Fold this sequence. Notes:
Helix content is about 50%, strand content about 0%. The chain is mostly helical. The chain has one domain (about 10-125): Fumarate Reductase Iron-sulfur Protein, Chain B, domain 2 (Orthogonal Bundle), CATH 1.10.1060. α1 (about 10-20) crosses α7, α3 crosses α7 (about 85-100) and α7 packs across α8 (about 115-125). The relative contact order is 0.17. The mean pLDDT is about 90. Bound molecules: iron/sulfur cluster (2 copies).
Amino acid sequence: MRIPQKTAASHQREELADIIRKDVRDCYQCMKCSSGCPFAEEMDYMPHQMMWMTNLGLYEKILESKSLWICASCLACSSRCPRDIEPAKVMEGFRAMLLRERGQTKVAPVIPKGVPRQAVIANMRKFRR
Ligand code: SF4
Ligand code: SF4
């Protein structure tokens, strides 16, 4: 993978940390998350790679990735992680950042056609209170 020069700004790192409340630096790349992910083969970056990229600050790549929207929020990765990283939560954190950026932070009473189910789940988890 080519490493782009641009890495996440501190306010982006803070925003993600505020959403997920996890320290992804605890990830030791054991790949248990990816080996249990039912959609890993369809992803451009597998869950353990997403965690690695998160630590490197490659948010741009992550936010552009298909993996964020292929992830079905099944939580299999989170249940398998020996370090309690909760990759599903990290994925969801990035989706929430994208939705905030686009101003799509509220769940409408009727979900418009074409909205990815992951976006609906991310919104409901974030704004259910
Ligand atoms: S299972 Fe946990 S520790 Fe292992 S690679 Fe995935 S996120 Fe990292
Ligand atoms: S929550 Fe997403 S990344 Fe984790 S195992 Fe399920 S589909 Fe894969």
